Model the fold of this input.
Amino acid sequence: MKKTIIMFMALGMLFGQVDYESQIQTIIDANCTNSGCHTNGCGYQNGLDLSSYENIMAGDSDHGPVIIPFDHANSYLWQRVNSGEMPPGNNPDLSGDEVNLIANWIDEGALPEPATTTAIYDIQYVEDPENDDASPLNGQEVTISGFVTAEFWGSDQYRYMHVQDAEGPWNGIVAFNYDGWDSFDFIDDNGNSVIGPAEGDSVTLTGTVEEYYNLTELASITSGILHGPADEMISPSVVAVGDIGEAYEGCLIEVNDVTVSNPDLGYGEWEFSNGTNVGLCDDKWDISIFLKKARTLVQSLAY
Done:
């Protein structure tokens, strides 16, 4: 019986981030400070002053920090407005949209101003890949935020890592570090040095878009922030063998009903087929199966 391969294809829009001053502070003022509650030092509200970004970020409570960047669920402010405990008494609750906006702001890092993060789609998308598949941002320094779909552990000299910020075509990219990601200085959200990310972790990377033998990469990385495990992992796109192409470069994909059509093309490459079309796999990552012609595929592979 033919089986399934899950693989990573190695073949300018900005995220709409939340603005603290115009969106979050406006909600807080309307519900917490204009009434005189959480302002002017707020001695009768446990000293919790919410009248400015600096004050809200410095705030603490008997139940923990008021704001924990990247973690709305454990941020006390969000817990109170989500439960309806704040504003208290007969004051109307915040709307669902307002509560979600606060959560989004916290999960983006609780920044005083929106960060400029480039969508991977803007790096990868080209209108006519048959004639020109070079990134429109080739040579430019960008910052991306996404989820690790293929960790560097097990890759060739630890140089390769795949990052995707959304499911579907054009949303993945290879992050390449010549010296190996195992020696890269990753930091966490507090600036502490940490070991490199694993699959499913959320990361922010700053580097330069480069083209290497028709492969678009994020290389010359200058900054890497590890935010920790993502709430939800990127799911593979189910793709027909004949549809594999530039749009899925760097993306996690799933191919069904295929067999090994050539186990050794040289240089670690091998071929699979659905009987009509063929696809190519490489050994950028270690694999733990014995390849044999016409053998059905039963394990996930990285390409």
